[in-house]
Amino acid sequence: MLQDYWDDRQLETEVLCDKAISLAIRHHVKFTTNLWLHDQIYMVLARGNLQAAENNPSERLYSRVNFIPTPEIIAQQLRKEILRSQYPKGTILKEKDISVRFNASRCSIRTALQNLAGEGLLVNLPNGRKRIVEITAQQLENLFGIRWLLEKRATEIILDDSSLCLDGVQEAITIIEEQYRHGEKNWSFFEINFHAEIVKATQDIFLINSFRCYSPTWFTVMSFRNPIREDPGYGSLFLATHKQLLSLLQNRSKDILSLLKNHLDEEKAMAQVGIGLLPK
Question: In terms of Cα–Cα distance, which of 104, 134, 110 is closest to 122?
């Protein structure tokens, strides 16, 4: 009966599954599904086998259940390509061309492109066209500069108000500890999640929304392969650094600002290596 209801509603299904997977990962909940829904969830986890599109940009994203990418999945693939400078300078994106490539509705494409424009990766042009922004070392510097300003302000607010609750930050550390024990090697999601909880603890809606706006871009640049992140000892260092950040925050110690700055500088350096943009 459930399957009948969701037939011909692939896009809505992907949105639902995306949320379900996010909650399951966050709360470490395992759940079973039928084969059809399992395939849908798998495609979300694999992000539609987006690597097929990376290897051959002209390929559409298909599965045996007629997978239709959500706007965020489309945006994530384009985001990766833009940050990797896979497009010539000045490339114009047209909704029609992107719709054909991903076999998705113009509405989904429009939403995806609007999200990327909001992140500063596209420039709006007349007639619905979008021009890709060239990624330079200075722009990457600015991207992490924005992150430092937001997190610095969030930290200062917490330092000045001992009544602010840090339960979300503590929970983020607990998740990191569990993932470390399970041998996790990809820390990008947990990096963003931890720092997002710091910002959320301020209860400042403007800070929270600003951080949320750029989070997909930060996450993407940190997801690219990097020899430092692939080092077997990186997980223990990652855990130790974030536990120290939490401890300083709980004690309302101003020493956290220097540790936070050093940590973000290290993240920026790894991002520069990951996308092949080293500072001049």
Answer: 134
